[in-house]
Design brief:
Blueprint (H helix, E strand, L loop, with lengths): L25 H26 L12 H22 L5 H21 L11 H16 L1
Amino acid sequence: MTDPALCPPLSGGGVRPGPGGFDLSRRLRALVALIALGMSALALAAVLRALAGAAPHHPNIREVAILVHVVAVLPAIPLGGYLLLARKDTARHRALGRVWAGLMVVTALSAMFIGQRHGELHLTSLIHGDAVGRLSVRA
């Protein structure tokens, strides 16, 4: 994080970005960290609950699209939080950002096939297609 003593705070409470791009204020960083940790903990608890057999049986859990979706999104949750908090403009950040974007593309593509019957296309599929296109261009 950029040293606040070297860069005076902006009017919005943020810190002037260093050469690596934007930076978050301490409060916002704490909020992002809290949310990322909370979401990661909930995802881990759900996985452990399912592995222990304590989760209720759901007939659709055997669908390949749902399994691919869950497997792709679970590592994307903590990775996204880390990327928001990590130092920007480094080779590591770019490489992990590409991994995160790839996971999100897989998540969006698999979501397009969840609950569809015989080639149905609905508004959510169009939104996922738009998201896939935007992530593919950036990665």
